[in-house]
Amino acid sequence: MKAIIYARFSPRPKESAERTETIESQIKRCEEYCSYRDYDVVTNYEDREKSGGDRNRAGLNDALEHVKRIGKGAVLVVYSLSRLSRAARDSHNILGELKAKGVQLASSADMFDSTTTIGRLVFGILSTTNEYVREEGNRVTSERMQDASANGRRMTRPDRLKYGWMINPNDPKRTMLCKAECWNIDFMFGLLGCGYTPTEIRQELKDRNITNRGKKWYAASIKRILDRGPEQTQTGEKQ
Fold this sequence. Notes:
It is built from nine helices and seven strands, in the order E-H-H-E-H-E-H-H-E-E-H-E-E-H-H-H.
């Protein structure tokens, strides 16, 4: 299957941008996903400093035109569905356009693939909840981190940091989101959305050599992370 990769980086405050996947890292993740699925990457397109609420993006339009020109047997790959669009209606319209041409849609971070029934179910759920969860999560995270900084608080002991967080290298008294661990958490929730159990997720992590800070994963540890929920995990609830 021939693959076209699309990546988008939206404008945001510096402190938030540092926790966001860059164009380069998105493309790398998509390439890894394509290699895993044996997709043949043709080329990639990108939009820099573009909001997901704007449907008319040059890079996106070019990517859609290219993949639809290939037609049946092609797939549009994005890092996450939020990179494709922040609006549920636009996401569904894009999927409809692709399906009309026999083109599939896949997301590496969300573990979504429109070629499967469960994948189409996951798409419906993510496209309608993604905007709220992501934007609300970013807002709460920013407020809590700013509040902690303003009051000079150490947010937690280094040896008790929840997975997804790390000590700020520029200020050891404060913590910050760990981009790599947050990606792993997104991967876990993607598998959960596809019906995987904690035990099956543990095996997937093991197969991909993804460790728990150098140690092996246990199903119970994964379940604790999933029980925190995507909002608490990303916003640092009770952190």
